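ligand=magnesium ion
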Amino acid sequence: MNQIAQAAEAILRGELVGMPTETVYGLAANALMAEAVVRIFTAKGRPAFDPLIVHVADATQAWSIAYASPRAQLLANKLWPGPLTLVLPRRALVPDVVTSGLETVGVRCPDHPMALALIRAAGVPLAAPSANRFGRISPTTAEHVREQLGQEVSIVLDGGPCRVGIESTVLLPDPFPVVLRPGGVTREMLEKILGEPVAIADRDTKSAALPKQAPGLLPSHYAPQKILRLRQPGTPWPQDPTCGILAWHGDDIPQVNKYCERLSPKGDLAEAATHLFAALRRLDASHATHLIAEYVPANGLGLGINDRLMRAAGLG
Ligand code: TXA
Ligand code: MG
């Protein structure tokens, strides 16, 4: 039996599977089986107030668990499969544990052939958070998943390194579009498709009546074990050989610093996103005693990268 079929059987038995997606690896379970979903929370050490994203093979399957709207249909049409999670009113068959009791459910169709094959083979939607222990750095290779959660999963499907590298954009499309978590689909792309402004939660949504950020987005998340500080571009790097550096392009890193990661030497935000979490892991495993990371330009994918950096530093 091939690996996808084995993984699908494990899913239907209520077990957990490590699943590659284009963003980060997920820890997948049958979204319609409450006791399987509970295992995700236990394995990750994740608090029950943090709702899960449900992964579907196509829009038709999405509308079987959530109610569509014109905006949701348009975005699903243009951007799925892809790194966009839509927060929509849920249908009654979605267990409470998936949504942390909310009346909405986050749904996305991942752009990865193995994820899509697994969802189709299992024949059920898959609840999957990122496959890391709660609060830790998200995994972008199968090896990262085995390191942190090897004991908890039946199978880790190896789909190679993740192409996008940061998580999906979480969007509440109605009554007007608000990004709850910046990620792999940019605000610029959303605005172009919808032909209207798209707000970013907490930054643009000033009134108490408007949606806040997604639940579960804590100030400390994606965190290395070492102390991480952040640096505005243009300010001096510390001349300290024990300090690990996470640089945007790295043209101005001092000679003394031995532990350096350059997210994109050519200054490309997509490349920087792809490398972000693996670079942070390497620095965390290095002999550097503390870390400093620099903000990237705050446009396009830079919004999602800076969001992860701030949470990794405990400043989210
Ligand atoms: O790219 C991704 O989205 C990855 C891959 C595996 O698909 N998944 C992921 O899941 O990042 P996770 O659990 O690490 O983050 C899910 C976040 C929650 O913390 C919450 O902020 C938001 O999505 N979310 C989920 N359901 C929601 C809902 N009903 N309302 C508001 N936010 C929701
Ligand atoms: Mg996560």
